[in-house]
From TrEMBL:
Keywords: Kinase, Phosphoprotein, Transferase. The lineage of its organism: Bacteria, Pseudomonadati, Pseudomonadota, Betaproteobacteria, Rhodocyclales. It is an enzyme of class 2 (transferase). InterPro entries: HisK_dim/P_sf, TCS_sensor_his_kinase. This is histidine kinase. It comes from Thauera phenylacetica B4P. One of its GO terms (cellular component) is plasma membrane. It catalyses: ATP + protein L-histidine = ADP + protein N-phospho-L-histidine. GO terms for molecular function: phosphorelay sensor kinase activity. Its EC number is 2.7.13.3. SUPFAM superfamilies: Homodimeric domain of signal transducing histidine kinase (SSF47384). It comes from the Bacteria.
């Protein structure tokens, strides 16, 4: 069946579902990317800080022990605890310094590209490391400098996964509520069309038709047309009833004259002729009464 209500419901449902699918895909990547960008910004800051302290220690011509102490102090206490989830490696030529947190783990953070492209690496104790490796300008003595930092994001990934599950649940419930609401809005919005159909049925029965004034603007012209049709039908039926009444009154005198003529024929001894006229008169009176009754019935509901 070609139903406007069904077509609108299906179209709106598809639009809502498409929006929900797009939002679900956004939830898969956006929270993780946003958190990763925050972590990478902190790692990048720490890398620049280590590089500055490295150059400063080299400029003061400090020994390697003092240089290592300067790097560990610059990194902060988060890089001191073993398996803390915060790690760094600084490479100066062939020399390399590692944070204390890496002493109990075999981590090679300076493997692969050193252009600042983030990557993920399986860490110790089930950790998931987000690694940032960067190459810096050579030191004053011409040795290349590379710095890599890593942070455990396993807890963040778990929190994002929990958030994503909750968000998808809420999204599914919201879509369900929206589908129910849009269905109710459609039913309510198209109810005046059902009212117009019922009005046409009442017109067929000769009943009066009247609509509520708060109908939607889109269907008011249709309801106004049906209401005009109802008034026109009522006026037409009124004219028919009035014309039938006038016809009845107009025929009373000729029928009375015919009745007198039948009596006159009977008085002259023509009983057969008088009976024939009276039979036709009765038929005419019955027909007039029947049509008047029909006119009254037809016009009674629409008046």
């Amino acid at each position: 069946m070609n139903s406007i209500r069904r077509r609108l419901s299906l179209t709106l449902a598809l639009v809502l579902l498409a929006a929900g699918v797009l939002l679900a895909f956004a939830l898969r990547d956006f929270p993780r990317r946003m958190v990763e960008e925050h972590v990478l910004a902190r790692l990048d800051h720490d890398a620049d800080l280590l590089y500055v302290h490295l150059l400063d220690a080299l400029a003061r011509h400090e020994g390697e022990a003092a240089l290592e102490t300067s790097l560990l102090a610059a990194a902060g206490p988060g890089y001191d605890l073993p398996l803390s989830g915060h790690y760094f490696v600084v490479r100066l030529g062939e020399r390399q310094w590692r944070s204390r947190s890496t002493w109990d783990a075999d981590l090679d953070l300076l493997v692969g590209r050193e252009d600042g492209t983030p990557r993920r690496l399986a860490g110790p104790a089930g950790q998931t490391l987000l690694v940032l490796a960067k190459g810096f300008p050579n030191s004053v003595d011409g040795r290349p400098v590379s710095i890599a930092l890593a942070e455990d994001v396993a807890a963040i990934d778990a929190a994002i996964a929990a958030f994503r599950a909750q968000a998808l649940t809420v999204l599914g419930l919201a879509l369900l509520v929206l589908l129910v609401l849009q269905r109710r809005v459609l039913v309510r919005g198209l109810a005046p069309l059902d009212e117009a159909v019922e009005a046409c049925r009442r017109l067929e029965r000769g009943e009066a038709v009247q609509f509520e004034a708060d109908a939607p603007v889109e269907v008011r012209p249709l309801l106004a047309a049906v209401e005009r049709l109802s008034r026109h039908q009522a006026q037409r039926l009124g004219r028919i009833r009035h014309a039938a009444g006038n016809l009845s009154h107009a025929l009373k005198t000729p029928l009375a004259v015919l009745g007198q003529s039948a009596d006159a024929l009977a008085a002259r001894g023509d009983a057969e002729g008088a009976d024939a006229i009276r039979a036709q008169l009765e038929t005419m009176r019955a027909t007039i009464e029947r049509e008047l009754r029909r006119a009254r019935l037809a016009g009674g509901g629409a008046g």
